[in-house]
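Inputs:
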Amino acid sequence: MSTDQSPSDTGPIRLGMVGGGQGAFIGAVHRIAARLDGDFQLVAGALSSDPERARLSALDLGLSPERAYTSYEGMARVESRLKDGIEAVAIVTPNHMHFPAAKTFLEAGIHVICDKPLTATMDNAVALVDVAKASGKLFILTHNYTGYPMVRQARAMVAEGLIGRVRVIQAEYAQGWLATKVEDEGSKQAAWRVDPAKSGAGGCIGDIGTHAYNLAAFVTGLELEAVAADLTTFVEGRRLDDNVAILTRWSDGARGMLWASQVAVGNENALSLRVYGDKGGLEWRQEDPNQLWYTPLGAEKRLITRGGAGAGPAAARVTRTPFGHPEGYLEGFANIYQEAARAIRAARTGAAPGEEVIYPTVEDGLKGMRFIDASVRSSAAGGAWTAVER
Amino acid sequence: MSTDQSPSDTGPIRLGMVGGGQGAFIGAVHRIAARLDGDFQLVAGALSSDPERARLSALDLGLSPERAYTSYEGMARVESRLKDGIEAVAIVTPNHMHFPAAKTFLEAGIHVICDKPLTATMDNAVALVDVAKASGKLFILTHNYTGYPMVRQARAMVAEGLIGRVRVIQAEYAQGWLATKVEDEGSKQAAWRVDPAKSGAGGCIGDIGTHAYNLAAFVTGLELEAVAADLTTFVEGRRLDDNVAILTRWSDGARGMLWASQVAVGNENALSLRVYGDKGGLEWRQEDPNQLWYTPLGAEKRLITRGGAGAGPAAARVTRTPFGHPEGYLEGFANIYQEAARAIRAARTGAAPGEEVIYPTVEDGLKGMRFIDASVRSSAAGGAWTAVER
Amino acid sequence: MSTDQSPSDTGPIRLGMVGGGQGAFIGAVHRIAARLDGDFQLVAGALSSDPERARLSALDLGLSPERAYTSYEGMARVESRLKDGIEAVAIVTPNHMHFPAAKTFLEAGIHVICDKPLTATMDNAVALVDVAKASGKLFILTHNYTGYPMVRQARAMVAEGLIGRVRVIQAEYAQGWLATKVEDEGSKQAAWRVDPAKSGAGGCIGDIGTHAYNLAAFVTGLELEAVAADLTTFVEGRRLDDNVAILTRWSDGARGMLWASQVAVGNENALSLRVYGDKGGLEWRQEDPNQLWYTPLGAEKRLITRGGAGAGPAAARVTRTPFGHPEGYLEGFANIYQEAARAIRAARTGAAPGEEVIYPTVEDGLKGMRFIDASVRSSAAGGAWTAVER
Amino acid sequence: MSTDQSPSDTGPIRLGMVGGGQGAFIGAVHRIAARLDGDFQLVAGALSSDPERARLSALDLGLSPERAYTSYEGMARVESRLKDGIEAVAIVTPNHMHFPAAKTFLEAGIHVICDKPLTATMDNAVALVDVAKASGKLFILTHNYTGYPMVRQARAMVAEGLIGRVRVIQAEYAQGWLATKVEDEGSKQAAWRVDPAKSGAGGCIGDIGTHAYNLAAFVTGLELEAVAADLTTFVEGRRLDDNVAILTRWSDGARGMLWASQVAVGNENALSLRVYGDKGGLEWRQEDPNQLWYTPLGAEKRLITRGGAGAGPAAARVTRTPFGHPEGYLEGFANIYQEAARAIRAARTGAAPGEEVIYPTVEDGLKGMRFIDASVRSSAAGGAWTAVER
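Outputs:
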């Protein structure tokens, strides 16, 4: 178990933030995640495109006024020249800003920690991979659910062959909060998510479908090969999909289904993954993240708990508290930051980050975009099986 | 609550059985279901096509030797002429025998209670509907899961508009018992299920997929309009599908998914239904049948229990024990027999059975066959959206 | 798995019933339990002390009018002389009638199946043991919860030493239906339960506390040695306890707690048992009766399911349906009748019933009465540790 | 929802720590809790009584070498004179050090945040209350479980009368990690807990029983009046109790039971509380902390979730993430620090902290000690009802 993750012989990592001003949800989450293990210190921000809101938000967060920027371009320019400028930036804006902001910081020599999905368009996604490679800087995509210890445990168990050859992959991400037209009732969170100009071609599929896809890919280690998708908009007048039903085909002959919905009343944040192989099955639910159910073929179902008897090193390395002391969403999110910190500290010294550093990369982000793209195209083509670009 | 269901002023209904000899599973279930409320008395049987096994099985069950038949044709011929001959017959054979047996008994003037799916082929299914209509006799299909009190409750709540207009229908039926080739290891239960000659064109989809479809149709009251299906056989050498992934489109604009699997290790008999409308959601799991979860839009999730505060008359009429005293599979199955008994008793007197008698009919069986047929065709056509015949 | 339990070479057992007329709950349960496996046939009844209600109830149940008795004494006298008179009687009256009725039938040479608790007074209980012994007839007490397959499984696992030496025994039986004074609002079920003249000295402790005690004793195989009890009446004007808190000491050094309540709003029929030894733990809940949780020391928790991989012969012998097809309260109750049938059939031939017949005996009933007695005395004495008579 | 809790116009609170060096569990928890919302900055420590370990631990945590003290006395003396000395100290030592350390810091004018139980002896507890009062400084006891949002919600619901007059209080805290003699196998965590010189007169009762008591008192708002206790040591050679069974009597006529165990194999950290009143019931489990079950009398059970429809302001004020994004143990613990920060910031300006600041006080700690004391005495006196000192 690792409780204090910051060897910190050289101090916390200086972090900037783009987006995440007052009223934002995910910005606050990133800040807690960055702070939780003491690895990062937030020192600069371009927290809002609205100058006054940017200033007030920075004040709230205790930033120095001179490091409260009103544009990300300005922040990148100034900070990259400071002796103690930011080493990394967290980009927590709506999707359409991910590309220009990430490009700017990477090119300014600053590591990027970016919210998902990677970008709003396929073109941007492809371009960003090139930018990231060319920059030599780190790019960490916060597919935070892969940070949960029991997700790590599941991945390790699949890799060790404990469930044998994977046959069936059932991924779900069900929410109900968009069952009515809340975007018209003042929900800032909802408004940009249903706006194609800010979200891209996918609504529900980009916002949460990608998480489900990424989780399945992360745990199984398989590549998604094709989809047959049915994207639906149930709430009248909404411009993007709010319910997504997809048949999936994976490498090595695995088949599956993926359901994502934001109109499933009674579901809060019901991301789940069930994987069945020829030697066993694994089941995990995000709302009960400390538990992993494992059934070896022909034996009783077992409950593997975070920190408990059946949990191995892959889980232990991202575990802070003993069994029965539940860790939650913020700790899972912080695990992504913890891995990022490991990689950034290694980069400080020019050392390789060590083979064990695990985080979603810009390439994973591109795969997520290809999943969205193929699904949107399949649905537009009447649900025809559509290959996911490789 | 109805604890003693047999007014029985005219005695129990005389019942025969086709199939269900020693070693069979579902035959024994039918017998317990018939016996549980005291409405039926098993008096005759053609329990096996093997004469000696038929004789021994009848002996086990306490049948008179002279009413232990070696063929269903013989049983129909003789019993239809007896003064106290059987009034109804339970057909519990593999699928391919449903049609000839049912036809024989209906034409002999004997009511039929038949296991699902209706028949092994579409042609037989269509023909059987005609035979049943022409016969003037009752035909009850034992889609037993519709007998559960909380399934009745769910159906009533949807009908009352408590979840509003139905948007999303997620139906699942996951098992794991066919994850290996048990049909080669002496499992009689498995052997006929994976044999196209006995099961028909569908394996998993016919055996359990139809239950999931029927449950969804029963609860929502909607018609299935089209499917896009991916039927897979994972176990090498097996001739029928053992995993089924289907996108569904229903009347009134509802969309859904249906997953049925017999290779999902760790699942026992995990039939479940989740239905989401614009005013609420309902969730039910067969393995926890006494509970129904209901979330009204914008309110907390509620647990409606069989016999409890939130359960209404639709559940109460098929409830025997108070809340907290769990009823199970056999009681749910017996509820189909209970409804059948109501209908048969009414038919004895020539009266209409009363509008409230609820059981799956031959037409429901035909719809189930059309679901199988469309799914098999869709999958064969590479998953194209395929209309379900109406 | 045993699906058809009636070898029936000599026909079903002829059964009579005392109590259980229209409006009664437990009488109907006994009848279904007796009928479920086809082992018994109800042929006579003294169903009510009210002649007209007795007659109508018998008519409902399809009894011959001449075997619808208006007193149990009359029924015992007449039936014991009939060639085809009843072989066994089910006594399903309020507690105070158990003793005189049971005594009468035992002395008339008729086996007795009797509801719990054994009697309303200690004196009656002691006397009944003597009567039963002297009669040479069988006495089966329907502590029905011991009939559940997973309770049998738990008992077998403890006996096999799988949890080692038992240390801690936590037994609970929580209900909420008496949280208000329903006995004044026409609840017949409630009325006699809170009447000392009909129930005896214990209310909640006799009605459900004894079940919790009996379950703990059955599973652990230990003897209860002492109690420190706090019996409370929360509902004003009620004459018997409606909440029971007890510290328990068992043979072999085990300690425990027993809580029974009928005022715990939100609990339906929440009987549960948790047993912890020095090598493992077992947990079972009546409302989820098909599941048994087992944690071996130092290993993951395992879910043993009825009919599943971890269930052994003790469970299998009282199992009717495969895993995932839930059995419930009625099947558990029927298992007591099934065991009774085995014993009675053996008694028909004079053979010993076979060592494997398992049912709660008159001696178990006496122990239950001693548990009640000690608890009532302890509570009256301010909660002092009080030895349970041996 | 409050995501960024630190207005921080005057910067984070300077925090010191006593105990919590390398290998300690709870020290790391306190540090994360202090850091999570950005309200505190750890600047000094007397992390171990072993000088070298103190030095290395401080290095790990990034403390300045000159503020890495080798004794708490030294730290109090020096820091209290520094211009930027610590404003508060977290005491995370074994129990016997709580009193001398807390006294020293309070008398040096430094606020104290102290782990539970309050002290190792009653005398110390009584004395500490006086010291705290005299000092005019804040004393916050980290009964962290009262920080959970749904515990706050439960308390508010009881206070609002939603379950009516409280009748029954069932509190449990079950663990299994001390089922064997791990204190002899190198478990530092176990070793001091079972040592009377470090823990005090209570083992399990002081370590976790107090949490269960405190939780029940916090939620119900009632005073514990008397206990009848049975403290047992199951593991041979252990010097303190490892299983605790207590009957409880509370003010206003409520009754209850409290079970705490460290030998219940299969339990991880199973703290739970169930409270039943004459108008409803509430149930909460620490291992599923985001859920609160509420049953109004005569209605269906409802699931109130953190951030969800049924959660009110008492929960919202300590909630960081939306429904379905689970918060866990660390967030609950951080809520105590968050409240402490509110109080300390108010104290900076001399203002009252506002009536809404909620944290366990030194008086609550004294009550916890009286609970331990009465229980130990009751058990020693053979379980006699023993008044809890007031």
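Remarks. Residues 148-323+366-380 of chain C form a domain with the Dihydrodipicolinate Reductase; domain 2 fold (CATH 3.30.360.10). Chain C touches chain D at residues 163, 167-168, 170, 176, 179-180, 228, 230, 232, 234, 243, 245, 247, 249, 255-257, 259, 261, 263-267, 274, 276-281, 283, 293-297, 301, 382-385 (CB under 8 Å).
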